[in-house]
Specification:
Elements lengths: L1 H53 L5
Keywords: Membrane, Transmembrane, Transmembrane helix
Length: about 60
């Protein structure tokens, strides 16, 4: 029974350590995805503005 408690506590400590270490990686991946989304949105928005300004006025 003592070995079972040791096994459970060991797994808990290892899982906690892994989650704490992976927070940096998760933050890094989230930052990359946010930058890619901002770039895509900027590109699309710029295309829309250029297309809008390039149209002849229909007055």
């Amino acid at each position: 029974m003592d070995w079972l408690t040791t096994l459970i506590m060991g797994n808990t400590v290892q899982t906690t350590g892994l989650l704490l270490e992976s927070r940096h990686l998760v933050g890094f991946v989230a930052a990359i995805l946010a930058a890619m989304l901002a770039a895509q949105l900027g590109w699309h928005g710029t295309d829309r503005i250029i297309a809008w300004r390039g149209r002849p006025d229909e007055d």
